[in-house]
Amino acid sequence: MSALPPVVDGHNDSLLALRRASADPAAFRDGHPGGDLDLPRARDAGLAAGLFAVFVPSEDCFGPEAARTETADGYRVQRPPPLAPSAARRVTDELLEAFDVVTGFDGVRKCTTVEDLRACVEGDELGAVLHFEGAEAIAPDLSNFADYYDRGLRSLGPAWSRPTQFADGVPFRYPSTPDCGGGLTDAGRRLVERCDDRGVLVDCAHLTARGFWDVHDASTNPLVVSHSAAHGVCPLSRNLTDDQLDAVADTGGVVGLTFAANALRPDGDSNPDVELSVVVDHVDYLVDRMGVDHVALGSDFDGATVVDGVGDATGLPDLLAVLRESGYSQADLRKLAHENWLRVLGEVWGS
Question: How far apart are CA 22 and CA 18, in angstroms?
Fold first, then answer.
């Protein structure tokens, strides 16, 4: 039986996990048992590379997280207010310093080109791509965009699930469509254009439906959603509807499947007691709708309640093995595991 392919993962919050634990970045190199991902587990799991998010939590600026309100058939989470730019830049700079430390360790490579990523897939280093989950640190006039690009920024989402100067973020609601907020601002359209010009991936995760379609209209690149799931299986506001999935496929883009319990469970609950079969259900739905060329992995390790069927990064081989048992060929597994990310990033960054 052929070996399982190495994985390129579309999203993790491991930098944030280190910060929340007040842990030295060396914990990532040596092992961080409180989190989902570190270098030893990445090696054990065959994780070749990932997009490492810089995310500024709302509680850093406003205190405890927004309250969840139960409804007759689900729940709604109050959307946090916008971040103050000065606070966003301060926390972003702290996380960037951690990223620089982590990518300076032996066995970790900062990836700014597809050649870097391919070397990690073919070799032993763990590749790390710098991603901004929410672009609050970027000035509305984009005057500091080049500075972040020079530090390695190669992927960004205009908003997390709160408003920014560039876009509205989709609130957490179940059941709900993603059509529950505004789209890109004028500054957001300029940001998308700048990303296209400089070869930076625009990530539609956490955007409302209007924001998603605004990116569709403003960008010349494939549509990408780094960590989401199928609305047809779990009607969470953050999951993608069939027309959105069709648009991703039509543009040659990719969806990274998250392992977040509330995005995978049909009942929208955050209870992680979920078997791998539910993850496979989402893979099947996405592949049936878009084709295998447009589906990848976007775990959200260290940023979500990961289903028990995966657990942490060491569960990746188990997932790939179950997918193989479900009928996916070795060629399919290579696409799902890393080839689709390499293809799309090559188109955006230039290969």
Answer: 6
